[in-house]
Amino acid sequence: MTIYIDQHSYHYEMENLVRLFFPNEKIVTASGIPENLSLPCVITSVSNSEGKAVIFTRVCINDFDKQSSTEVNNDDPDFEKTAERAMAVCLYELLCELTGKCQPWGILTGVRPIKLFRRLSEKNGEQYAKDYFEKELLVSKEKTELSAMTEKYERKILALSRPESYSLYVSIPFCPTRCSYCSFVSQTVEKTKKLIQPYFELLCKELVYTAKIVKDCHLRLESVYIGGGTPTTLSAEQLKVLIDTIRINYDMSSCREFTVEAGRPDTIDEEKLQAIYSGGADRISINPQTLNDSVLEVIGRKHTSEQTIKAYELAVKTGFKHINTDLIAGLPTDTLPSFVSTLDRICRLNPASITVHTLALKRSSRLTLQGQGVQTDGAGCAADMLRYCEQKLTGSGYHPYYLYRQTRMEGNLENVGWSAEGFDGIYNVFVMDETHTIIGCGAGAVTKLKVPGGEELSRIFNYKYPYEYISGFDEMLKRKEQVREFYDKLS
């Protein structure tokens, strides 16, 4: 499919909007409108005349050939923003008519809708934000109310951050097996076992080196997150050394939350949990994704639902008060009754928080490579699963504390973190809101340097893969000096 872009710079937004309706199509953009159109196509243009600009869209797909236009004042102080939104609305309405489907998030295509909702609320009040979402962005009432509820809890967490705050992310890019939906830079233990120990040793060196830099920059640590991959692919002794390295070298006195993503139940044992707990980590995540064993097999997980329950009970016995569980709505072969059963069983465990993701099929995932496409029907099974989540979890004393979206999601839906009172995952909010600097260590980690009070981010990339990380380690340490240079300029 071709999107023709004529006399405007909104190609990125128009392409993303078309992808909401045709996520499995190959889409290309072209400048100008030729005499001979390449079908199927979408045409978008802006033509200026005295005092006004005409926004024009046309959709030519199969037997559907319709157009829409509107006018925007040229003297509008926010002309570009207004014109882009007007074009998106025109195109969206045509695509809804063509497909017979409307999107739950309307014309919103961004990852962080709550951040936008907060800006609108701070400027003109919550009711204005709700009206803008529903009337100007065409977001459903259901998703607008979810946004408003989530933003209230996010706001409390954001207020904890200071100008000198930062959070630490540590990457363990190894997993027992690769899930069929996964596109993360994680490596299976079977293929990379010989790399784990040299990687681990260098990671500890990077943490020590980085700790000296953040100390010199007088930064304040708010949260630590050890993620991956699956950090519990490390041995108990390695986990102990890793956590001790962090605890000894970083000032933990201000740290509000220390998370270790235990992830796969088949990597969890008593010795590892004790190493994590004794080291001072106060939040772990045990991620079943589903408690349907046949679905687990389909997605490439080599554990059972019973192993999840036993791992959870073992974590409770060890002493953990904040255990998060991750679920995924829309997994292959899963059904609404199966998902309902999973959530009900998880709720009976009474976890402090539950994160509900919607399946997102990235282009490098095995499911995508095998030809499975994104299901676009927002009123379908995944949407029903999320509706049940909201009903069940709000009725069980949970509230939404963070929310984000991804491309190529089933039904164009969302991911939501739900928690019991007092158990919000603050790192999740800080990183999704881009509240303050995130210092990343390990393969695939990205350091994001944030100017206090500003929006601009400066990024420092670590090498993606463990073998690159090992061979290019000295270069990465040199890159970390950019943290010092960044804060020197601020001061």
Describe this structure in words.
The chain folds into two domains: 1-100, Double Stranded RNA Binding Domain (2-Layer Sandwich); 160-481, TIM Barrel (Alpha-Beta Barrel), CATH 3.20.20. The protein has 16 helices and 18 strands. It has helices spanning 11-21, 79-99, 113-124, 126-136, 141-158, 189-216, 236-249, 270-279, 293-298, 305-318, 336-349, 366-369, 381-395, 426-433, 466-471, 473-490; strands at residues 2-6, 28-31, 41-49, 52-61, 64-73, 165-172, 174-175, 187-188, 220-228, 257-263, 283-289, 322-329, 353-358, 398-404, 415-420, 437-441, 446-450, 457-461. It has a nine-stranded mixed beta sheet, sandwiched between helices. A hairpin with a 2-residue loop joins strand 4 and strand 5 (64-73). The longest helix is centred in the middle third of the chain and has 28 residues, at 189-216. The radius of gyration is 24 Å and the shape is globular.
Secondary structure layout:
Elements: E1 2-6, H1 11-21, E2 28-31, E3 41-49, E4 52-61, E5 64-73, H2 79-99, H3 113-124, H4 126-136, H5 141-158, E6 165-172, E7 174-175, E8 187-188, H6 189-216, E9 220-228, H7 236-249, E10 257-263, H8 270-279, E11 283-289, H9 293-298, H10 305-318, E12 322-329, H11 336-349, E13 353-358, H12 366-369, H13 381-395, E14 398-404, E15 415-420, H14 426-433, E16 437-441, E17 446-450, E18 457-461, H15 466-471, H16 473-490
Parallel strand pairs: 1-2, 1-3, 6-9, 6-16, 7-8, 9-10, 10-11, 11-12, 12-13
Antiparallel strand pairs: 3-4, 4-5, 13-15, 14-15, 17-18
